[in-house]
TrEMBL record:
<keyword id="KW-0496">Mitochondrion</keyword>
<dbReference type="InterPro" id="IPR009423">
    <property type="entry name" value="NDUC2"/>
</dbReference>
<keyword id="KW-0812">Transmembrane</keyword>
<dbReference type="GO" id="GO:0005743">
    <property type="term" value="C:mitochondrial inner membrane"/>
</dbReference>
<keyword id="KW-1133">Transmembrane helix</keyword>
<comment type="similarity">
    <text>Belongs to the complex I NDUFC2 subunit family.</text>
</comment>
<keyword id="KW-0472">Membrane</keyword>
<keyword id="KW-0813">Transport</keyword>
<dbReference type="GO" id="GO:0006120">
    <property type="term" value="P:mitochondrial electron transport, NADH to ubiquinone"/>
</dbReference>
<keyword id="KW-0679">Respiratory chain</keyword>
<dbReference type="Pfam" id="PF06374">
    <property type="entry name" value="NDUF_C2"/>
</dbReference>
<keyword id="KW-0999">Mitochondrion inner membrane</keyword>
<keyword id="KW-0249">Electron transport</keyword>
<protein>
    <submittedName>
        <fullName>NDUC2 dehydrogenase</fullName>
    </submittedName>
</protein>
Length: 81
């Protein structure tokens, strides 16, 4: 008597998927990841261009501040005896 056990429809068990499916899923994963990365880089580059253009058109909102010296940042030291 031979018992039929369902196996995902590919003829292999879930525990032993085979090299061809591993290669397929790796290829699909690489393809999807490549295009998602490419899209994310495009969106970030577009946002950077828009922000730099805004800064260039509104210099009064983004004035360069003077550099402070270390002595200006620290409080005066008074030793306590």
């Amino acid at each position: 008597v031979v018992l039929f056990v369902p196996n995902d429809g590919f003829g292999l068990s879930r525990c032993n998927p085979g090299v061809h499916r591993q290669i397929l899923f790796t290829t699909v994963g690489w393809f999807v990841g490549y295009h998602l990365t490419k899209r994310a880089e495009y969106v970030h580059a577009k946002r950077d261009r828009e922000l730099f253009e805004y800064v260039r058109q509104h210099p009064e909102d983004f004035k360069i501040k003077e550099k402070k010296r270390m002595g200006d940042l620290l409080e005066d030291f008074y030793p306590v005896r």
